[in-house]
């Protein structure tokens, strides 16, 4: 076979190509390395390869972006997202050290990013479905969110520098996916939606025929499109977080752009709610179930309350904009984030049930009656959060609403 040329033009690599790429392009493995490669990606967009030196026990991840999404070739997506992801990870590593993987190399021709292998971690969604607890997770993820969100905003950054970042991370193709799949398509009878048959009538009643509700989603969509508040991850769910007992790593920031801070916080909360409804539906009654549900509820409570505490503390330490120091402005600013957080939690709960992209927390519930009940809870809870978002300001508000809507 002729030697591949990785310097001229892009092509989608296979496992054997990646081994050759690692040998020829990267200065990572030893000369006597014995390399193997496996494609391990299970996301909707990219190809993820794990390359292992079986002889010297070294490994890396090579993530390649293609011109279309893996979930559907209807989504034409710019491979520039790989450049965005590489640069974002470097920025986040400086702002939240140890909470994102290290980036070793970015290749603009092959549209791939070479990064730290996290195979000693587990995807958070998988861990939650296995009913595992992580005592440091909420501390880590709140630190990550506060640091990456507040420190990239106008209240801290020099404004021209921040505007340069806004330009550099304009991400129109992936932002459009969020605009469509999160804010638009779930709320009408869109042909691309994938609705569990027992849930379809409820979706019609709760959303598609409620003009007051639809107006609120329109307001939220335009805020998402126009509020360049800070550098957000843009897809911060339990499938984008790796964990082990003493470590948390946030991955996949390819949807990143300058948007509303509450978008990231709300996504994290929503996926703890998905874990909660899954545990309610699938675990056998008993002490183990009670303990796990209690831990998930405590996590939801602390996600909000610890985020608020750390946000206030970091604001007091780092705020540089003069007018942001006026009495009452910090409270106003944080209240807006918390309102957006509640709304996005609700949007994510709804769109993952009645939109195109589902979550295993719901789809793996085997009992049809239990799944329908779980979906109903998510939709009703989600709508309440969206419609009453200005009143949902602390962790207890979420737990009180959960208890009031218990199946």
From TrEMBL:
GO terms for biological process: methionine biosynthetic process. It is an enzyme of class 2 (transferase). Residues 226-280 form the Aminoglycoside phosphotransferase domain. Keywords: ATP-binding, Kinase, Nucleotide-binding, Transferase. GO terms for molecular function: ATP binding; S-methyl-5-thioribose kinase activity. It comes from the Bacteria. Its EC number is 2.7.1.100. Belongs to the methylthioribose kinase family. This is S-methyl-5-thioribose kinase. It comes from Clostridium polyendosporum. The gene is mtrK.
